[in-house]
Sequence to fold (226 residues):
Amino acid sequence: GQQVKQSSPSLTVQEGGISILNCDYENDMFDYFAWYKKYPDNSPTLLISVRSNVDKREDGRLTVFLNKSGKHFSLHITASQPEDTAVYLCAAGARGTGSKLSFGKGAKLTVSP
Amino acid sequence: EAAVTQSPRSKVAVTGGKVTLSCHQTNNHDYMYWYRQDTGHGLRLIHYSYVADSTEKGDIPDGYKASRPSQENFSLILELASLSQTAVYFCASSDTGGNERLFFGHGTKLSVL
Fold:
């Protein structure tokens, strides 16, 4: 079964608002969590990642929150901009598996002006 | 910036034919991967490799073979292409030492008719 799940396939946010993307995982061994961004007809690129020894990581407008007990992590984008419109893929992996990441199905974020 | 190059960028194949997708990386990375992307499924791992002349099965290896003749090159082979293998295929590479960041190529759009 799918080890990483994104339950909401799409989200629309107004410009300037906060975008919140969610991801759930099943494997207790996962200790690395990441968000990738993908524009149409382009390759996924890493946005931000976090290891399981922290609950939160900020990078500019991006914040990843990790809830290990709930097997859940999320990406918050503040001051959302139209250029944030893209597909966001969450991913998780376990140490020692040679970076064999499992990806969610992706969620389309649309930021409307 | 890391570079992963895929060829061809797109291909139309006939059912039952042989298809080879090629990937070349100049990152000096040990790990290379082949993922496929389908609508509603996100990225799914087909095969991966962590050293030349060795490949490992991913989550959906059936119908695919892989070849890693050198550190820089990783091929995905469809011996008998089928309609269900129509998808976008992404190659990626990553460093060792617990750095799980994946660097993706631009993808190969494969249509099997």
About this structure: The CA atoms of residues 22 and 75 of chain B lie 5 Å apart. DSSP finds no helices and eleven strands in chain B. Chain B has a mean pLDDT of 93.
